[in-house]
Amino acid sequence: MALEPIKTEAPKTPGAPVHRPKRTPLSKRDRLSYGGTMDPNRVYRFINDKDDRLAQAVDGGWSFEEGKDKIGDPRAAEGGAIDSRVSKPVGGNVRGFLMSIPKDLYDEDQEAKIATIEKTEAAMKPNKKEGQYGDGLTNT
């Protein structure tokens, strides 16, 4: 059985636009944008349902967002929603859930993260007051 070419209908009036679905170029894919209302006093993230990441997020103060709003561009191979929580398949048989946390708690977490990084970086540099010398941690 041979494949037949796709037939397109010419416009009735010369110069009239051809009706076709709106296309999205590959370079403009928008897979994880959220079309719902977002509170500016909260921080939003997609968190993957892998290992115990969702439980860790809930323990850390994050909460699931609920609704039926669109997430990103539609994709033919994706299933629909599994419950009222906003989610989207992210690949590898893993689903990402939209979660949020109050901005003040998020800022506290970020400050703690920065303090840990600064402590680690300080340990890499020599402390002249304690008689240490040299370049500290080098890449040789």
Class of secondary structure makeup:
alpha+beta
Percent in strands: 15-25%
Gap from first CA to last CA: 66 Å
- Biggest sheet, in brief? 4 strands, antiparallel
Radius of gyration: 25 Å
Oligomeric organization of the protein chains: single chain
- Average pLDDT taken over every residue: 76
Element-by-element helix/strand order: EHEEEH
User: Uncertain spans, ≥5 residues at pLDDT below 50?
Assistant: none
Helix percent band: 10-25%
Cα shape:
elongated
Our count of helices gives 2
Notes on the protein architecture:
By secondary structure, the chain is an alpha+beta fold. The chain has a domain at 31-102. Helix content is 20%, strand content 16%. It has two helices and four strands; from the N terminus they run βαβββα. It has helices at 53-59, 103-123; strands at 42-48, 63-64, 87-91, 94-102. Strands 1, 2, 3 and 4 form a four-stranded antiparallel β-sheet that branches.
Which terms would index this structure?
single chain, 140 residues, four-stranded antiparallel sheet
Brief synopsis:
The protein has 140 residues and is an alpha+beta fold.
Task: Set out the fold topology.
Blueprint: E1 42-48, H1 53-59, E2 63-64, E3 87-91, E4 94-102, H2 103-123
Antiparallel strand pairs: 1-4, 2-4, 3-4
